[in-house]
Specification:
With 230 residues, the protein is α/β, with parallel strands linked by helices. The protein has helices spanning 10-18, 23-35, 37-58, 93-103, 117-127, 145-155, 165-171, 178-186, 213-222, and strands at 62-69, 72-78, 83-87, 109-111, 163-164, 199-200. Helices cover 45% and strands 12% of the residues. Strands 3-2-1-4 form a 4-stranded mixed β-sheet, with helices on both faces. The longest helix is centred in the N-terminal third of the chain and has 22 residues, at 37-58.
Length: 230
């Protein structure tokens, strides 16, 4: 930011830029800006910041938040439509943000703790066995129709309810696609909230889990499905 000018405070420049100055002060400052390169530069910088903030307020934006969980450092992200990512696998905040930036090249990715506080609270209550479901919208945009169908069917499974890969395939009208269902669930960007841990093999063994089988066991344990854990 350009160095200050003693004639006018930053608040005066910002008020003028936003049109909040009274008429006499606005006229005085306009005349001052015409003759003061430092204040003109400050006004230009504040205007650029305001445009950037406006883009975040009005345009597409991805907000994220990190917090502690029983699985370690967990990170969650959302668009304006709903959750787009949840993971405890990212090595760092930087790695998580880099992945979001590759996935959403046209949207700024910003850390916003307030916006996603409810997601953290609901996940915490689930891990503490105080909540059995989530009231969190999800955004499955950018996925294929098949992936969305698989995840939508999986999201309808209730707390402690399980289905097989074959059953999910039948439910979406693709009875021969159980392997493809497994692949789609392996790329689920919002585990736990979209409960792919509730999908098991036909023989009722656990099957795979991208996050690691010990986490699938832990999630099923939270939901009381100890019959599946032997």
């Amino acid at each position: 930011m350009t160095g200050p000018c003693s004639d006018y405070r930053d608040e005066d420049v910002v008020a003028w830029m936003l049109g909040d100055s009274d008429d006499s002060k606005a006229q005085d400052l306009a005349e001052h800006l015409a003759s003061c390169p430092a204040c003109r530069a400050r006004a230009a910088e504040y205007r650029a910041l305001d445009r950037s903030a406006g883009a975040c307020r009005e345009g597409p934006v991805i907000r994220w938040r990190g917090f502690d969980s029983p699985f370690g450092a967990m990170r969650v992200a959302a668009s304006r439509e709903g959750l787009v990512a949840l993971t405890w696998q990212a090595a760092s905040d930087e790695a998580f943000v880099a992945g979001l930036e590759r996935r959403y090249r046209a949207a700024p990715v910003v850390c916003d703790g307030d916006e996603l506080a409810d997601a953290e609270a609901q996940l915490g209550a689930y891990f503490d066995r105080r909540r059995q479901g989530f009231e969190l919208p999800v955004d499955l945009g950018g996925l294929t129709d098949f992936q969305r169908a698989v995840l939508a069917a999986t999201a309808r499974l209730g707390f402690g309810e399980t289905a097989t890969y074959t059953e999910i395939a039948r439910r979406i009208g693709r009875p021969g696609a159980s392997r493809a269902v497994g692949n789609a669930l392996g790329r689920n960007p919002i585990p736990v909230v979209v409960p792919c841990h509730r999908v098991v093999r036909t023989d009722r063994t656990l099957g795979g889990y991208t996050g690691g089988l010990r986490y699938k066991r832990a999630l099923l344990g939270i939901e009381g499905r100890t019959d599946l854990l032997s």
